[in-house]
Amino acid sequence: MSERPHEIAEETIAFLRHHLLDPTPQNYTLCFAAHSGAHPALHKALAAISDDGIRVTQKDADELFAQFLTALPPGLTNDEPDFARALRHQALKITDAVNDAAVVAGAFNLELSSDYDRLKTDPANVATILATMLDRSRKAENELAAAMAELQTLRTELEAAREDSNRDAVTNLHNRRALLAHLAELAEAKRDHVLAICDVDHFKSVNDTYGHVVGDRVLKSIGNALSTACAPHVVGRWGGEEFLVILSDTELSDAKRIIEEAREHVAGTRYKLRATDEPIGTITFSAGLVCVNDTDNGAQEAIIRADELLYRAKSEGRNRSIAA
Question: What is the pLDDT of residues 182-192, one digit of tens each?
């Protein structure tokens, strides 16, 4: 996922203007998703139309939106609607701010042209006309400054909305959407990496015995342990009590050592109820690790292989990791 939302917003507006596409929420969302790197397939499809200097028509844009953005990718049904709504909302506000700035600039140009014509036809009142022009210039400058300040605020809000859309609400780690985007980036760059799926053992009994609030605190604690042990690699909540760790440019043996350090830390932690200090007992997790390279047919195939190793670890007694 790109980390330069300000530049992407500017690139999106420039792309729409270059191709004479109206800055509607749908067009903005389409081009922003393509330029952000969050949707590699959409980016390639848009580039295939425009790379040879051919203008993207509104029909092209509508067809791409229908093909790539109206149907949600698997596993994103819980996250994508909120993100899409936030993005559309910010797109409308940014479009309004840009249009306001354009109106101010256009009106100022017309007024200057009119004043210039008066200078030629009424040279006796040069001082008065120049004073009027300076006053209009200051007014236009203030209005443009206000419009740009609003645009900067909206950019900040857009960045915050995008960041929130990539975070799991319980653990504050990357969510499934962000993990899939990162895997797509690695695949596109043909970078080898190791996938580790970690699943908390007997987590249902924690929820059933102590409630979901305690269960969420346990998940957050395990997420923190994985993040610390695996830094600077990407760690996220895959769903439920499952975490996904993506270790880029790492040998399988090194990745297993890292996951084992996290597993031992979690198993050695004594969890207690916050209100009463009552011990919860030992919490452990099991993990399956696989190497991913450019011979794999997408991340989904690697995830299936890692999942099979995870359940093998479960069947062999839990609280262990298996790499292959």
Answer: 999 998 888 99
